[in-house]
Design brief:
Helices cover 11% and strands 54% of the residues. The protein has three helices and 14 strands. Strands 1-2-3-4-6-7-8-10-11-12-13-14 form a twelve-stranded antiparallel β-barrel. A hairpin with a 4-residue loop joins strand 7 and strand 8. It is globular.
Length: 274
């Protein structure tokens, strides 16, 4: 029921914004992005993604991102496990600007995400400030929780819904520097678990890959917009992850020699704006 309620809310917001935008004859701005993420540790995961987003002139934005996930690491294949997972995310936000040069921006965000093993809702708010023509800073706080979660088994009849639904906060800070046709972005991310679930041995299960209930991550992005074809942009991103320090990352417990290593990733993409 919660899943359908979330979809209904997103639909209502979209309809509302579209109705208000009818009076504006000029369209807003749309973007199509094609992305490819590759995890460097053992070359184990590839995530191709396609995203569409449209910002209306009244400030409302809606979008959808489809992602696929392919595990290709040698260790995964040796144990006969090479899953292909889907991830579909519906994204909405509203943006208002103010100031002599519209240097301030703020608004709420609301997303709905569905995976093979879980459905989630995410909501929060953001604020951004344009310091000058070169520098800009933006912060966001976002809460997310599972609406439902399922444990999949080889025999579908053995699959079951889980009670340990995750709830967490994510805090982002983006610092952007523009130079000519380049844009460089540093993203500091902090995750914090709100929910708690312990197994029969009393060990906390709602922890991150570092074994704690909070962690920091960093992302570095370089964008290039073609000077004579400004609708086209290419970018590269490096995702610096935290060290993996859970017992399950030890080779004697899982067969994977990942303990103390970082599950870093690179992402390459192309964006077309119209």
């Amino acid at each position: 029921m919660k899943k359908y309620l979330a979809i209904a809310v997103l639909g209502a917001l979209s309809f509302n914004a579209a109705a208000e935008d009818d009076d504006n004859l000029r369209p807003g701005k749309s973007t199509i992005a094609i992305k490819w993420e590759h995890k460097l540790l053992d070359g184990r995961t590839d995530r191709p993604k396609v995203e569409f987003g449209h910002r209306m002139r009244n400030g409302f934005k809606f979008g959808v991102e489809q992602a696929w996930q392919y595990d290709r690491s040698k260790s995964e294949k040796e144990v006969g496990f090479a899953p292909e997972q889907y991830e579909l995310t519906f994204k909405t936000d509203y943006q208002t600007r103010w100031g002599d040069n519209n240097e301030h921006q703020a608004g709420p965000v609301l997303d709905y995400q569905t995976k093979e093993t879980a459905n989630s809702i995410r909501f929060g708010g953001y604020y951004g400030y344009k310091i000058n023509s070169d520098w800009q800073v933006k912060v966001r706080a976002r809460y997310s929780q599972h609406l439902d979660r399922i444990s999949l088994k080889d025999d579908p009849a053995d699959s079951y819904y889980r009670d340990d639904k995750n709830k967490e906060m994510r805090y982002d800070m983006w610092l952007t520097y523009r130079w000519d046709n380049f844009r460089f972005v540093y993203n500091l991310i902090h995750y914090s678990k709100i929910s708690s679930y312990k197994n029969d041995s009393g060990v906390e299960q709602h922890v991150y890959s570092n074994g704690d209930r909070s962690l920091f991550e960093h992302e570095f992005t370089a964008n290039y917009r073609f000077p004579h074809a400004k609708k086209h942009t290419v970018y590269g991103k490096f995702k610096l992850k935290t060290e993996m320090l859970k017992d399950s990352h030890m080779v004697e417990n899982s067969g994977y020699d990942w303990y103390g290593k970082r599950d870093n990733a690179i992402e390459l993409g192309y964006k077309y704006s119209f």
